[in-house]
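Bench notes, afternoon.
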Amino acid sequence: MMFEPIPYSFYKAGTAYFWVHFGLIILGFLISLATVIGQWANPAPYGKHQNSNAYWGPMIPQRLGHMISDAVPGVLLFSLVYFLYSSEENERNILNYVFFAMFLCHTVHRGIIHPLVMRYKNPKVALGIVLGGGIPNILYHWLNANHIAIAGYYSTYYYDPRFILGVLLYLAGFIINRWADWKLRSLRHTKGHSTKQFIEVEGSKGYYIPYGGLFEFVSCPNYFGELVQWIGWTLATWSLAGFVWTCFSCATFFARSRHNHQWYKDQFQDYPQNRKVLIPFLY
C-alpha cells in the first residue's frame, strides 16, 4: 500500500470555498496564539477563577450557558455545516460519517449530557463568559465539520496507520476525559466530609483534593484526556482543521491547567508536591 501524504481529495485550489476554508484556518491559528498569550497571564474568569468584581454581562443559568457555548456550535452548527454547506462538492463515504459520529460523541456529551448531570458550584454564569467560550467554538467546529464533509478519503485509508492510531488515541482520550469529569463531579457529593479519595480542608471554599487514577500524576487529567482526544482526531482526519483546533485546545488547556495547579497549591497546604500540571511525568 502506497503512503499518500494527503489521503483525500478536497476543494480545488483557487475556488471561493478553498479560500474561505484556508483563510479561516489562518484566523484560527491567530486566535490560538492570542489565547495562549492572554490566558497564560490571566485565567479565564469562570469556575475556580471566577471574579465577582468583574462585570461580564447579565447572569444566566449555568446549565443553559454551558449548552449555548458547547451544544449550539458543537452539535447544531456542526451538523448543519456537515449536511448543508457545499454539499455538492463531494459524495461522502463511510469514513466521513465515522468522523461525524466521533465528533458528535464528544460534543453531545460535553454540550448536553454534561451540563444536565454536573453539580455546579455556582448556579449562574455571566453571558459574556458564555459568549467568550462559544464564539471560538463556532469557528473551529465550522472548520472541522467543513473538512470532514468535503474530504473524499481514499478507499485504502481504512487501513492507514494514521487513521487507526488516531481513532485509538481519540477513544483513549475520550475515556480519560469522561472518567476525570465523573471524578470531579463526585467531589461535589462529598461536601461536609472527607474520604480517602477526596480531602477537604478549612478554607477550601467548597473545593477538594481529588485522589486516585491519573489524579495521582497530574492536577488536570480531564484536560489531559481531551488533549489526547484531539491529537487523535488530528491524526485520524489528517487535516489542518483538526490541527488548528488542537492548537487552540492546547492554548486553553496548558494555560488553564497551570492556573488550576497553582490554585490547588495555594489553597491546600498539603497538596501533593509530586503532581505535575497536565502531562504525567513531564509538565
